[in-house]
Design goal:
The chain is α+β, with helices and mostly antiparallel strands. The protein has 2 domains: 85 residues, no CATH class; 89 residues, no CATH class. The chain has 6 helices and 13 strands. The strands form 4 sheets. It has a 5-stranded antiparallel beta sheet. It has a 4-stranded antiparallel beta sheet with strand order 9-12-11-13. A two-stranded antiparallel ribbon has the order 1-3. The longest helix has 20 residues. Bound molecules: 2-acetamido-2-deoxy-beta-D-glucopyranose (5 copies). One 2-acetamido-2-deoxy-beta-D-glucopyranose binds next to loops. One 2-acetamido-2-deoxy-beta-D-glucopyranose (NAG) binds next to loops.
Amino acid sequence: MKYYVLVIAAVAYLAYVHGDACVQCNSATDPKCATDPENYLAKTCAVNTSICYTRVLNGNTIRGCASELDNATAVACHNELQCLICSFAEGCNRLVFPQSRSQCLQCTGNSTSDCATNVYARPTVCPTYKLGDKCYVRNDGKNKTNSFQRGCLSSAQANKLCVDETNCFTCEGVGCNFISANSTQIPVARDGAAFISSSILVIGVALAMLRWA
Ligand SMILES: *[C@@H]1O[C@H](CO)[C@@H](O)[C@H](O)[C@H]1NC(C)=O
Ligand SMILES: *[C@@H]1O[C@H](CO)[C@@H](O)[C@H](O)[C@H]1NC(C)=O
Ligand SMILES: *[C@@H]1O[C@H](CO)[C@@H](O)[C@H](O)[C@H]1NC(C)=O
Ligand SMILES: *[C@@H]1O[C@H](CO)[C@@H](O)[C@H](O)[C@H]1NC(C)=O
Ligand SMILES: *[C@@H]1O[C@H](CO)[C@@H](O)[C@H](O)[C@H]1NC(C)=O
């Protein structure tokens, strides 16, 4: 009897180790798929192979079972910057990908917040993948919620901030945006919705005055 229990346990163990399971997620709907892949459990694949992939596409990070890839993508999927297939273990597609992707201090706050004052925070993986991404610090000088920000330039630009980089401090390298909030290297940002709407108001008033003149 004991023997059977052992055999069943061994088979279960082998099924687990050689299980057909991969991490399956897409950062488009689930940002942690890009930033915290270590915390995902592998899920069973529809086809019985434990071949998994990780790829980046249009800035999103996608993980799944290799059997889902079309042939052309699967054939080209051995590139450490775009798409990689692995089969050495169940859920082997659980690593940060690409391994060299940008990491920055990422936070927002006012000018007295922890975001502004703590320059020893740990850099974290940028949620959007962009080759050559930079880190940034943005300060609009208003001392309000979110007026001080550290993060990945790709994320700021997706929100139309720091598109003109002279509005922000930018730098290249893992966690390079740890500079002190009072550094003269950080310009006062003149971009963003509040500034644009106040500019439109000023232009509107100027036009009205021209009409009266
Ligand atoms: C998957 O493969 C394992 C071992 O190779 C086998 O025991 C199992 O029955 C297979 N499952 C399916 C659904 O084909
Ligand atoms: C993809 O490759 C498999 C096996 O190599 C083949 O059976 C299948 O027909 C291919 N599909 C397409 C669309 O080329
Ligand atoms: C700045 O944020 C902190 C919390 O991070 C808050 O306690 C403080 O009141 C805020 N100050 C201003 C001026 O908004
Ligand atoms: C921001 O506001 C707080 C509270 O009103 C004040 O103590 C602090 O000096 C202000 N900081 C700057 C840089 O204006
Ligand atoms: C900048 O802030 C740091 C601490 O936050 C302080 O030690 C330093 O004196 C400040 N530098 C200037 C020029 O205000």
